[in-house]
Amino acid sequence: MPLPRPTYPAPTAAVPALVYQPPAGDAPWYPPVMAGADTLGRIHNTDGFVSAALAHMERLTPDAYTTYLGNFIREGRARFGDHWVYADIVSVLLCLSRVLKPRTYLEIGVRRGRSACAVAAEAPYCAMFLFDLWQQGYAGIDNPGPDFVRGELAKVGHRAPATFIDGDSHITVPDFFRKNPTAAFDLITVDGDHSERGAAQDMCDVLPRLAVGGAIVFDDIAHPAHPELNGVWKDIVVNDDRFSAWSFRDAGYGVGFAIRKY
Ligand SMILES: C[S@@+](CC[C@H](N)C(=O)[O-])C[C@H]1O[C@@H](n2cnc3c(N)ncnc32)[C@H](O)[C@@H]1O
Q: pTM of the prediction?
């Protein structure tokens, strides 16, 4: 059976930090978004976001995975210095949040709040909508739920409301958009259900609600246990002209982001 595809109604929102507003009376010749994946990828690779990701993780409650990741990043920097090109969901979200200054963030797959806290740290007044079913023992690590994540958000200085929507994203996300038919988001992360069809369905449910100039982040596009995720990313985002996409698959589990152009 073919994978689901998103359907896009006309967008209703745009991210001010990325769009060009011509002077009153001038025709809008270009699509409005001024910077895409090339610009954002260059900022990511040159402005210290891998070091920032390391410092970010050191502010949060450690677990076996983040301890491993910290050692991996320190070793990469020690061996390859400034030539080391690396990215993960945290370095990418720190970069996108600093540049886009998102006002609204939707995340599917929160776990212990590491990625949501990256957005909160750079955009403390960003309103968050966080979807998870809190699968016990996810990846062999305690997955304590919203109260724990609220504590982590407080540690990084988040000051806006954080709304937790608990349950299976394939039910809760469509239900949320039915109840909030005009909701649009400046930044969205999909990192929940890692099955091919489940991840594709999550993408289809959220992408139509991404603002113009907003970014979608999709994790694990080089994860050996989830080889189908790169195909989902390419089919639904990279091959769609409405997105300018950046993919990192050299090391780690890989991560992609894309800016919506129109
Ligand atoms: C890879 S972890 C998220 C990691 C997090 N984004 C981070 O960077 O630390 C995946 C999370 O998705 C949740 N999840 C898995 N399937 C889901 C579903 N169908 N609906 C909602 N959450 C789901 C799990 O409970 C788990 O907490």
A: 0.98
Question: For 41, which DSSP code?
Answer: H
- Buried b / exposed e along 132-156 (16+ C-beta atoms within 10 A): bbbeeeeeeeebebbebbeebbeeb
**Cα-to-centroid distance, 192 and ligand 1 (Å):** 4
Q: Which domains does the chain have, with CATH numbers?
A: 37-260 (3.40.50.150)
Q: Give me ligand 1 centre to Cα 78, in Å.
A: 32
Question: What is the mean predicted confidence (pLDDT) over 132-156?
Answer: 96
Q: Which atom of ligand 1 has the smallest separation from the CA of 169?
A: 20
Whether 196 shows a pLDDT value over 90: the answer reads yes
Do residues 228 and 202 lie in contact, with contact meaning Cβ atoms separated by under 8 Å?
no
pLDDT score of 1: 85
Distance from the CA of 82 to the center of ligand 1, in angstroms?
32
Q: How far apart are CA 170 and CA 109, in angstroms?
A: 12
State the closest ligand 1 atom to the C-alpha of 189, by its place in the atom list counted from 1: 6
What percent of the chain clears pLDDT 70, i.e. is strictly above it? 100
Q: What is the pLDDT of residue 213?
A: 98
Burial 12-49 (b: 16+ CB within 10 A, else e): ebbbeebbeeeeeeeeeeeebbebbbeebbeebbeeeb
